Amino acid sequence: MEEEPVAVEEPAPAEAESDNDGEGESEPAKYNLEEVVEYTELLNKYAELEGKVAELNKTIETLTATNNTLTQFKQKIDREDKKKLINSFYMLSED
Q1: Domain ranges of the chain
Q2: Are 67 and 44 in contact (CB under 8 A)?
Q3: pTM for this structure?
Q4: Tens digits of per-residue pLDDT, 3-48?
């Protein structure tokens, strides 16, 4: 995730009256966000959290697939047990 540096303009403080009558007004200061320590720290933390989210989503997918497989297996075993139980009663009725 590469982002281009963003320039931020800080508004100039309001002055009551200018001594130079509007001549030679200076432009507001421009800052490069890449140079702001807090901004870079937040970007790093954000990137780290994105990685963790991706990892957890992958784990969720794996666990969901495993759960589905085990659920199908359990249902198959339950059906076989029910068939055996029904067949055992069927044999008793023939006697």
Answers
A1: 7-14+25-94
A2: no
A3: 0.52
A4: 555 555 555 555 444 455 555 567 777 778 777 889 989 999 999 9
